[in-house]
Amino acid sequence: MKAYRVKGTTDDVTTCELCGKQELKGTVVLEALDADGNEEAVCYFGVSCAAKAAGWTQREVRAGIKTAADEERARQRAERDAMWAAEREFLATWYEEHYGTRDLHEAAKRAGVSAVKLSGEAIHAYRELQRAAEQATKVVEESAAPELEPLEVAAPLTSCPVLAEPGNIHFMTAHCVDCNAFRMAKMSPDTVESWYHYGNFSQDEYEAYMYAWATSAYRHSAGGWAEEPTEPKVLEIVAAIRRHAGLPAPTTLAA
């Protein structure tokens, strides 16, 4: 007799594959196993037909359903715990990188903002990281578009001695060109704009980011933001953002 294992139940399939009865409330999902105990096929049966196919009693089928449900809940719980642990670790690391401490309240004190606001900033950064990872996965899965050949753009090395030390970065209130360019290089336009409205980025930093974003080799868009700024400070920040983001801007647009 074929060996089976209960995988769970589903209401997506309402027809028993054994007797052909239709419009069931749901079916039992059985995995047909090969000689080595590996899944060979998935079958959908009513409870009585699942028992008949596997050579079990209906009580054993229901016990298998309960076990499968318990295992699935445990898997989901472990997945959630791992997700929350990863987020907690990211936030603690973010506080440490930006403010020299893994404690939220101490970091907020050093930043001169509320713990709620600072944690919101850190969570925004985490969400951006997740979105970037999802986008990277999507790009890999999709057909690759023809790539533009990167152009060499001369850019000065980091001038910030704090950022030059691994794991160190200036407080945002210092408005260090290199440190804030390093932050912005990892952010989306929406996040930068939100931080700008909160007062975390200056007008020059915001304008520099939008210009660097609009004129990167990947876009050449965004309307008025593609117009080259004339303010030397803005151009300095543009060069720093491009350097930290690795943007291969055309030489005609290089700061």
Summarize the structure in words.
This protein has 255 residues and is mainly α. It is built from 9 helices and 3 strands; from the N terminus they run E-E-E-H-H-H-H-H-H-H-H-H. The protein has helices at 47-54, 58-99, 104-111, 115-141, 161-164, 177-184, 189-197, 203-214, 232-245, and strands at 3-10, 27-33, 39-45. Helix 2 runs parallel beside helix 3 (104-111), helix 7 (189-197) packs antiparallel against helix 8 (203-214) and helix 8 (203-214) packs across helix 9. The longest helix is centred in the first third of the chain and has 42 residues, at 58-99. The chain starts with a strand and ends in a 10-residue tail after the last helix. Mean pLDDT is 80; it is low at 143-156, 218-222 and 250-255.
What's the gist of this structure?
With 255 residues, the chain is mainly alpha-helical. It is 52% helix and 9% strand.
Strand content: 5-15%
Q: What separation lies between the terminal Cα atoms? A: 74 Å
Shape: elongated
Q: Average pLDDT, to the nearest integer?
A: 80
Instruction: Write down the oligomeric state.
Output: single chain
Helix share of residues? 40-55%
Rg of Cα set: 28 Å
Output the structural class. mainly alpha
The total of helices stands at: 9
